[in-house]
C-alpha cells in the first residue's frame, strides 16, 4: 500500500503561500523589527494589563501604565548609568594627554628599531608627501562626509524605530484580547482544538524563553559588572552591567561592551587589558556553555548545538534582526515540526 501523506502536503498553494510569506519577511526584516519588538513587549506585558484592568480602571489606561513602566525602566537604567559613564569619561579625557605621552615614549624608540621609521625626516619631506597625496586626502574627506550623512540617516531611522516600539506596544496591549478572539473565530471548526493546543504550547515556550532570557541578562550583568569593577577599570561597573543587559543580542551586545572596556583600559592603564580580556573570556565561556543553554536552551527544548546553529543561520538570513529572533523562532519552529510529524505519523498509522 503506498504511503499516504497528510492532506495539506498535497495542496501546493499552501506551500506557495508559506514561501511567499518567508520571502516577504526576509524583504521587510528592517521594517518589521519595531513591530516584532512591540509584539514581544506586548506579550510580556499582557498579564500585567489583565491584572490591572477592572471596571473602574479601563484596559487602555492599564496598557498606558504598563508601557509607561517599560519606558520608566529603560530611562531609569540610563539615568543611573549615564552619570557614572559621564564622570569616568571626563576623568579619562583628563588622563588622555598623559596617556598619549606614555604611548609616544614607548613607540618612538620601538618604531625606528623594528619598523625602520625615521623620525628625523625633514619638514620639507613631509610637505612634499602631503602635496603628493593631497588628492587622496580630499577624496577621503569626501567619503568621510558621505559616511557621516549616511550615519545621520541611520541615526534618524534608529530614533524613529525606537519611537515606534512603544506606540505598537500600546495598541497591541489595548486590543490584545480582541485580537486573540478575532483570530480564534477565523479558525476552521475541524481544526480549532488542535490549533488552540498548538497556540498554547507556543505560548508556554515563549513565556519560558522570556523568563529564561531575563535570568541570563541578570546573571551576566552581575558577573560583568562585578568583574570589571574589581579589575579597577573606570566605569567598570556601568560598562559591565551594560554588556550583561545586552546579551539578549547574542554576540553583538557583549562585543560592544568588550570594545568599550578595551578602549577605556588603553586610555586608563594598558596593564588592565589582560584582566579585562580575562573577565570577558570567562563571561563568554560561562554564558555560552552553561547559563544560556541551561536557562534558555533547556527551557525551550533546544540542544546547545541547535542554539548555536539557530543563531548562525538566522543571522546569515536576516542579519541583526535574525540574531535577535533566532531562539524564539527556532523554539516555535520545533513545536510546529513536532505537530507536523504527529500529523504525518497518525496518517501513516491510520493507513
Automatic annotation (TrEMBL):
Main localization category: membrane
Transmembrane segments: 14-41, 61-86, 154-173, 214-233, 245-267, 304-337
Keywords: Membrane, Transmembrane, Transmembrane helix
GO biological process: transmembrane transport
One Gene Ontology term, aspect cellular component: membrane
Its membrane topology: Multi-pass membrane protein
Compartments, as annotated in UniProt: Membrane
PANTHER family linked: AI-2 TRANSPORT PROTEIN TQSA, TRANSMEMBRANE PROTEIN
Family per similarity comment: Belongs to the autoinducer-2 exporter (AI-2E) (TC 2.A.86) family.
Stated name of the protein: AI-2E family transporter
Amino acid at each position: 500500500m503506498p504511503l499516504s501523506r497528510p492532506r495539506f502536503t498535497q495542496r501546493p498553494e499552501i506551500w506557495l503561500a508559506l514561501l511567499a510569506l518567508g520571502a516577504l519577511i526576509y524583504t521587510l526584516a528592517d521594517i518589521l523589527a519595531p513591530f516584532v519588538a512591540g509584539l514581544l513587549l506586548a506579550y510580556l506585558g499582557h498579564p500585567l494589563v489583565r491584572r490591572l484592568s477592572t471596571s473602574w480602571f479601563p484596559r487602555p489606561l492599564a496598557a498606558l501604565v504598563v508601557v509607561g513602566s517599560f519606558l520608566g525602566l529603560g530611562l531609569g537604567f540610563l539615568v543611573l548609568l549615564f552619570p557614572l559613564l559621564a564622570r569616568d569619561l571626563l576623568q579619562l579625557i583628563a588622563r588622555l594627554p598623559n596617556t598619549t605621552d606614555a604611548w609616544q615614549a614607548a613607540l618612538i624608540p620601538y618604531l625606528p628599531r623594528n619598523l625602520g621609521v625615521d623620525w628625523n625626516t625633514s619638514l620639507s619631506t613631509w610637505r612634499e608627501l602631503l602635496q603628493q597625496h593631497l588628492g587622496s586626502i580630499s577624496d577621503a574627506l569626501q567619503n568621510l562626509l558621505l559616511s557621516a550623512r549616511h550615519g545621520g540617516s541611520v541615526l534618524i531611522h534608529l530614533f524613529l524605530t525606537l519611537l515606534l516600539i512603544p506606540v505598537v506596544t500600546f495598541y497591541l496591549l489595548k486590543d490584545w484580547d480582541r485580537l486573540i478572539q478575532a483570530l480564534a473565530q477565523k479558525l476552521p471548526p475541524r481544526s480549532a482544538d488542535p490549533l488552540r493546543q498548538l497556540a498554547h504550547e507556543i505560548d508556554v515556550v515563549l513565556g519560558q524563553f522570556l523568563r529564561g532570557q531575563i535570568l541570563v541578562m541578570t546573571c551576566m550583568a552581575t558577573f560583568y559588572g562585578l568583574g570589571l569593577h574589581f579589575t579597577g577599570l573606570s566605569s567598570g561597573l556601568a560598562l559591565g552591567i551594560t554588556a550583561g543587559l545586552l546579551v539578549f543580542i547574542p554576540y553583538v551586545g557583549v562585543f560592544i561592551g568588550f570594545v568599550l572596556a578595551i578602549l577605556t583600559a588603553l586610555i586608563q592603564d594598558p596593564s588592565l587589558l589582560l584582566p579585562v580580556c580575562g573577565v570577558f573570556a570567562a563571561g563568554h565561556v560561562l554564558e555560552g556553555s552553561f547559563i544560556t543553554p541551561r536557562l534558555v536552551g533547556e527551557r525551550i527544548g533546544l540542544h546547545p548545538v541547535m542554539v548555536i546553529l539557530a543563531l548562525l543561520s538566522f543571522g546569515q538570513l536576516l542579519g541583526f534582526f535574525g540574531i535577535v529572533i533566532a531562539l524564539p523562532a527556532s523554539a516555535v519552529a520545533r513545536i510546529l515540526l513536532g505537530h507536523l510529524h504527529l500529523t504525518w505519523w497518525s496518517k501513516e498509522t491510520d493507513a
